[in-house]
Amino acid sequence: MQEATQLAGLQDRSLGPFTLQAQYQPRRRVGHFDLDLFLTNKEGQRSREPLVTGIYSKGNPSSQIFSWLDIHYLDRFAFDNGDAEVLSGMEDLAQGLFEILGGVIPPGGMIICSYVTDVAWGMESAIHETTRRCLGLSSLKIPPAATPIGRLLVATGCCNIKAGAYDVQGSSRLAGEKALDKEYEERFRQRLIKQLEEYLGKNPNPEYQHIEATCRTNAVEILDRMIIK
Fold first, then answer.
1. Is 45 left (phi over 0), alpha (psi -120 to 50) or beta?
2. Cα–chain-centroid distance for residue 54?
3. Per-residue pLDDT for 1 more than 60?
4. In a 10 Å sphere around its CB, with 0-12 CB exposed, 13-18 middle and 19+ buried, how is residue 183 labelled?
5. 69 backbone dihedrals φ, ψ, rounded to 5°
6. What is the pLDDT of residue 167?
7. Most distant CA pair in the chain, distance
8. How far apart are the C-alpha atoms of 111 and 99, rounded to whole Å?
9. d(C-alpha 134, C-alpha 120), whole Å
10. Segment 138-162, tens digit of pLDDT
């Protein structure tokens, strides 16, 4: 069986009151794995559906192709006899989850996250719907990193957040790229700081008050972390 050492590092990681349980198996293509990530509670119950599902690739560093994750993030979970809960509404747990996911991807790698997961799964999800609306309103010129899903990708350690560049099999995605080295990291960081500052320097559109409030809050939080760094 193929090995996926990085994915093994997801197993039994703590996330607030929960523990992560990773299930993965190799695909036909060498170095590619199906991944499902569940939560377990203090009673040892596993969430009924995965919180994250997708594909992990080990890449081919000798050909300058680095590891990547292509995922659906559901943002909700439920245990037996319990109602569904929204992870992004529980303090900083969603950000903590993406920080853990970021540890799977080395410098030069990418994390790609769908923003139509709610449509694909037939569910309601505020972060997916808001991200989709943000990117669909080109007149607002919202940086992808300031969207709800973009902010989570920044938490993985990716500073280069792209929209529309990695549209695979018709599913819309945001892509976060990790800098290959310190020089690129500083380039990505300065470019992102400029994007966010320019966005915050514009007057918000009152017609889209909720979207603007969410994205501007995200932009300020990201800037605060990046400038302190």
1. beta
2. 12
3. no
4. exposed
5. -120, 135
6. 47
7. 56
8. 11
9. 19
10. 899 999 999 999 999 999 999 999 9
What CA–CA distances, in Å, run from 60 to 29, 67, 86, 165? 12, 8, 36, 21
Contact 13, 21 (CB under 8 A): no
Q: Which tokens belong to 45?
A: 């119950």
Q: Give the count of beta carbons closer than 10 Å to the beta carbon of residue 5.
A: 8
| Residue 50 phi, psi dihedral angles, 5° rounding | -65, 145
Three-state SS string across the chain, please? CCCCHHHHCCCCCEECCEEEEEEEEECCCCCEEEEEEEEECCCCCECCCCCEEEEEECCEHHHCECCEEEEEECCEECCCCCCCEEHHHCCCHHHHHHHHHHCCCCCCCEEEEECCHHHHHCCCCHHHHHHHHHHHCHHHCCCHHHCHHHHHHHHCCCCEEEECCCCECCECEEEEECCCCHHHHHHHHHHHHHHHHHHHCCCCCHHHHHHHHHHHHHHHHHHHHHHHC
Percent of the chain past pLDDT 70, that is, above it, reads 93
Q: What is the number of other CB atoms lying within 10 angstroms of the CB of residue 227?
A: 10
pLDDT: which is higher, 74 or 62 = 74
* CA-CA-CA-CA torsion sign (209, 212, 215, 216): negative
- In this structure, which amino acid lies at residue 19? T
Across residues 175-182, what is the average pLDDT? 94
